[in-house]
Amino acid sequence: MAILRLGDEAPNFIAQTTEGEINFHNWLGDNWGILFSHPADYTPVCTTELGTVAKYTNEFDKRNVKVAALSVDGLESHHGWIKDINETQNTTVNFPIIADENKKVSELYDMIHPNADSKLTVRSVFIIGPDKKIKLTITYPASTGRNFDELLRVIDSLQLTAYHKVATPANWNQGEDCVIAPSVTNEEIPNLFPKGHKEIKPYLRMTPQPNLD
């Protein structure tokens, strides 16, 4: 089984979901994507996670991000679980949940870790760019729910740094100052960063976020 690393192409697959059959790459199109797995249907932490994702629809839409979840249970189970999610989380699930009973996708993305559980997926997260390359991976244990505010923050950083020669410092949030990439020379800074910059050390140069007015 291949280990997926940052910069690798996200494997394509065709699968049945709660919103019909999808070809993953075609479904993503030119969007960014999040693929995240769940140990099983009708699990308490996952119920809160899927409800949270549904409530964040507008935030994902603003960032041109499509979201797909995965569980090793089947479509009938998924549809029943969605009713529970909508009821208990006061929302409407409006993204596909992949049925992966044969564990084809789970194995393709190395979502089953035998030392954690030989049958169920761990809580994997893959953020995928429009070029279908993997930009970020995070793996949570089954007992710990994901922080979707953090995933939005990471997407903001990934989208910013993909198109501007900056990096984002620790605890960065949208609208805060950024680090100028080391590859940028001091002579290039005025043209690239007309808002100005502050040199803290020769290797640590800060500038206002460049893609904001």
TrEMBL record:
GO cellular component, as recorded: cytosol
Keywords: Antioxidant, Oxidoreductase, Peroxidase, Redox-active center
GO terms for MF: peroxiredoxin activity
One biological process term in Gene Ontology: cell redox homeostasis
Annotated ranges, domain Thioredoxin: 4-160
List of catalytic residues: 46
Domain of life per record: Bacteria
InterPro entries listed in its UniProt record: AhpC/TSA (IPR000866), Peroxiredoxin_AhpC-typ (IPR024706), Peroxiredoxin_C (IPR019479), PRX_1cys (IPR045020), Thioredoxin-like_sf (IPR036249), Thioredoxin_domain (IPR013766)
Coiled-coil region: none
Keyword Oxidoreductase among UniProt keywords: yes
SUPFAM superfamilies referenced in this protein's UniProt entry, alphabetically: Thioredoxin-like (SSF52833)
Keyword Oxidoreductase found: yes
Entry's family note: Belongs to the peroxiredoxin family. Prx6 subfamily.
Xref: NCBIfam families: PRK13189.1
Protein name listed in UniProt: Peroxidase
Naturally occurring in which organism (per UniProt): Aquimarina muelleri
